[in-house]
Amino acid sequence: MRDPVSTGKALGERRQRKRRSAGRLVIVSNRLPVSLKKDAGEWQFQTSPGGLVTALAPVLRDKGGLWIGWPGTTKAVDPIEPLAVASKDIGYELKPIPLTDREFNQYYCGFSNEILWPLFHDLQSRCNFDPAYWKAYQVVNRRFAQVLASSTDRNDYIWVHDYHLQLVAKELRRMQVKNKLAFFLHIPFPSPDIYFKLPWRLQLLEGLLAYDLVGFQTWRDRNNFIHCVETLVRGVHVDHRVRVTTIKIPGREIKVGSFPISIDFKEYARQAADPEVTKEAKRVHHAMRSSHIILGVDRLDYSKGIPERLQAFKHALEHYPGLRGKVSLVEVVSPSREDIPEYGRLKAEIERLVGEINGRFTQPGWIPVHYVYRNLERHELLVYYRAADVALITPLKDGMNLIAKEYCAANVDDNGVLILSEFAGAASQMRREALLVNPYDVESVASAIHRACTMGEAERRSRMKRLRRSIARRDVFRWVDSFLSAADAQDVALVKSPRKPVGKRGAGTL
């Protein structure tokens, strides 16, 4: 008679071998989906759920996948034990990439966020082109590649995410790694006249061209990348005739496409309809004593256009006196990169403008701007989404901006209005039903605020219903499926992800 324990172990090993032979999905990002922190002298892990994790976790669990990234600490620690516990808890393997304080400062704070972030958001005057940053960026990308090379099998499909890791494929090719490699950029890609200001422009393009598939948020970003390649790379031929473009260079072909990321629409709508959320949203609306609540939710960053938004709101109160006493702006700002001086100055500017507006327009029983500077848990954020009559989402430039989609998904009453920057990636999908504005034009934003607050109920409901229908059709699971289809990775991980409840998410994960 067979020992049931041995039999079960053998079955498990056979399943694992089958998974590995079929190929796993390997996700690579700057951060792991968990963070390590020390509590009472012991290392603990904390999950960091967001849209990407929500979409990919079921695929990774099903296929025995792997996620590689930085664990969120530069302290000298052996993170294997807490990450092993985390891996068991979430159902797929986690592999940490260590960073020293210097590497964190030069690769992450430096090259990634003092060069690539402002440059790719068309804010090149904020760039600090320090050569030491470029050296650190290469070192860290090489380390990611080394861990990948030693942790993956030939059939694994490797999907690298975002601007921190654009050189990983190039390093892997140098190591003779033959796996299929894909890359997705979550932020915008700049036009040639902006991109060419980067001293290492050709090296970075060569890094991206080492991938088999490169994905962008919008057609504009995809076209900008192609124009840069055609200008800087010799012997290139581009086939524009198909949805996923093929770039041919000597010796290889690269697919390039637009894959707009989205959210778990059904989960947001389900949580927003919770009776407790509805009750608290009504309480918030009553407490503010305003006919209309306008909501802004942003991470602290100069690309989000928060000072410009506050100036536009002030202009609206000045030129549309009927709004005074009836409209309140709730501006939620999530702390971010507070160790970078530029962000400290931005925070001070925001607080100055809030004080100026409130000092000038406050009336007994009414405050025009309610400023919230902290991370909000998912429940709190949903309450504000439900309470808000208008969402004012006006980034100066954004890859997509999922807040706009979250607001619409949570608007289960179909009675909200979305004011959206035309420079957000989401504008290409939502332009017909949102009120699109130029965030630099305070007069047009003020006019849109007045229009949103005086819009008739029938028009509000019609616009919001169409917005919600569009987002529901193109949710985050469709994004994963469309990307992996273009990557020819169906045998690795093409499954329809189940709608499982996800954890709480702070505004700091925008």
How would you sum up this structure, described in words?
The protein is an alpha/beta fold. It folds into two domains: 10-262 and 477-489, Glycogen Phosphorylase B (Rossmann fold, 3-Layer(aba) Sandwich); 265-473, Rossmann fold (3-Layer(aba) Sandwich). It is built from 20 helices and 17 strands. It has a nine-stranded mixed sheet, sandwiched between helices. Strands 14-13-12-15-16-17 form a six-stranded parallel sheet, sandwiched between helices. A hairpin with a 5-residue loop joins strand 9 and strand 10. Helix 4 packs across helix 5 (131-151) and helix 12 packs across helix 17. It is globular, with a radius of gyration of 24 Å. Mean pLDDT is 88; it is low at 1-20 and 493-510.
Judging from the principal axes of the Cα atoms, what is the shape? globular
Major beta sheet, specifics? 9 strands, mixed
Q: In what range is the share of β-strand residues?
A: 15-25%
CATH architecture of the largest domain: 3-Layer(aba) Sandwich
Index terms:
single chain; about 500 residues; alpha/beta; Rossmann fold; 2 domains; 9-stranded mixed β-sheet; disordered C terminus
Task: Summarize it.
By secondary structure, the chain is an alpha/beta fold. The protein has two domains: 10-262 and 477-489, 3-Layer(aba) Sandwich (Rossmann fold), CATH 3.40.50; 265-473, Rossmann fold (3-Layer(aba) Sandwich), CATH 3.40.50.2000.
Strand and helix layout:
Layout: H1 4-22, E1 25-31, E2 34-39, E3 42-47, H2 51-63, E4 66-70, H3 80-90, E5 93-96, H4 101-120, H5 131-151, E6 157-161, H6 168-174, E7 181-184, H7 192-195, H8 201-208, E8 213-216, H9 219-232, E9 237-239, E10 245-249, E11 252-258, H10 265-272, H11 275-288, E12 292-299, H12 306-319, E13 327-334, H13 341-361, E14 369-373, H14 378-387, E15 390-393, H15 402-410, E16 417-421, H16 427-430, E17 435-437, H17 442-454, H18 457-473, H19 476-486, H20 490-493
Parallel strand pairs: 1-4, 1-6, 4-5, 6-7, 7-8, 8-11, 12-13, 12-15, 13-14, 15-16, 16-17
Antiparallel strand pairs: 2-3, 9-10, 10-11
Helix pairs in contact: 4-5, 5-6, 10-15, 11-14, 12-13, 12-17
